[in-house]
Amino acid sequence: MAEPEAPVVEIVNVKKRFGDKVVLNGIDLYVMKGEVVAILGPSGSGKSTLLRCVNHLEEMTSGSIKVCGDYIGYERHGDTLKEIFGKRLARQRQKVGMVFQHFNLYPNKTALGNVIEGPLHVLKTPREQAITRGRELLRRVGLAEHMDAYPSELSGGQKQRVAIARTLAMDPEVILFDEPTSALDPELVNEVLNVMKEVASLGISMLVVTHEVGFAREVCSRVVFMADGGIVEEGPAHQVIDNPKEQRTREFLGVVPRKMEKAN
Amino acid sequence: MEKNDERTHQLRIVRSKHPVQIAIGAVVLILLLSFLFRIADNENMQWPVIGHYLFDSHVLAGVRVTLVLTIVCQILAIIIGTLIAIMKLSKSRIFVTIANGYLWFFRGTPLVVQLIFWYNLAALFPVLFLGVPFTSLGVTLETNAVISGFTAAVVGFSLHDGAYMAEIVRAGIMSVDPGQREAAITTGMTESQAMRRIVLPQAMRVIVPPTGNQAINLLKATALVAFISGGDLLSKVQDIYAVNYAVMPLLVVATIWYLVLVTVATVGQYHLERTVGKGYTRSNGKKGRAAKNNVNMGVA
Fold first, then answer.
1. Shortest CA distance to B185 belongs to which of A4, A160, A93, A219?
2. Can you give the pLDDT at residue B139?
3. Mind telling me how many Å the CA of A20 is from chain B's nearest CA?
4. Phi and psi (nearest 5°) for A85?
5. B187–A122: do the CB atoms touch at under 8 Å?
């Protein structure tokens, strides 16, 4: 007699306007615990904006987003959401990790320095412990020999793996990936996707905005296709990618089925 | 076929000499040396007089005042400037307006006037009340007892320089990739932590050079305290030549000391730049040892 579990991420009727431009037109989306959900779509579809609303890097115009039961960036008073700031907002954000398209590593710290920064100064973990954990995480993403390297000495794929280790160091409940491989050379994409597969296998919920349709098909339980600020189609990964129902989805994915036929 | 020649002979790379650069360097050097020589040999310079006053106790006292004033005021200016810069960059329209008002006033009025104003504060406010406005909770001080030439100078220079520092700090903060702040707050840091731990340290790289400029400017601007009976290097030197009429030699004494102080400041700036520039190698993304060999900004 299991009670239905609350979703880890609950996006309800989210709308976002930049001045006159409507970027998000009423998005409803949920992510259950342990799920890996991919968001695909052409540029301008609003997928990055949606992701950034989840951890309040962007403010929504209306709607609500709950992560692990909290309205990130807000406090609910009856029917209104009041903005919150400072320490309370920061504490909410601890549960939500983010991996960026352009890595955003701290350039004046080593790889290890990047990874331990959060645990040391936000979680107040003792230094020894933070370093041990940091080393372990860097080992797991395959960067054991680069712990003392500065980001400027690393390749794109290595930088992104450090970024993932940095996020994992905070023990988030859900990790948001904003086109994590879009800025990488093709031969470096796989090393990052493999690490993301491993993160998925750890049972961490993931919401991934990506162009890597192959990854979406292989690793994600669900795929969401967005265009023009709205969700066009949504469903199990294999279904949406192999047999898209909507014309728009088919147009977008048009290239992939042919590629996969050739592979087979 | 002729191609064989290229394969059998190793082609040697020879660095090109730069005749024009060398020629210009030589001309400058010769002009400089001949100028220095003519100065050294010049009777009108009165070198013995310069030598006599270079370490005179009054002059040294003046150097001390100049130095202390510069250091204290520059530090205060950096603190004030950072606060104003953060206010100007905040989302609060109130803070932005306050910051803009500060900049407008303290950059818009002449420094000399500001110094004279603080020194003569007693003319406007004979009594200073520090406490809760419109009540009697607080402390009352007689203005003239608190304001001296030195305190007026400290207040005046700090507030004035603070305005210029604010724009320098703001430029530095703006030079940091916005993704840095985003990464920091995503790991659960507050905006203030992100600013202190991640953004400002990176902004330092861009802030240090123009700040060095400001400090050196301040060093010489301290001469203005002559208007408020300051006791700095230039004032002391003027006191001396008012009596013995050896104007040139004493100005040279002052110049030598200013040069010494600026040299120390410049060396200090160099070391500071090396420290805050850690991690910014000219590696262009090259990996490992190749990158470390290209370092020109002191990765420790």
1. A93
2. 78
3. 21
4. -135, -175
5. yes
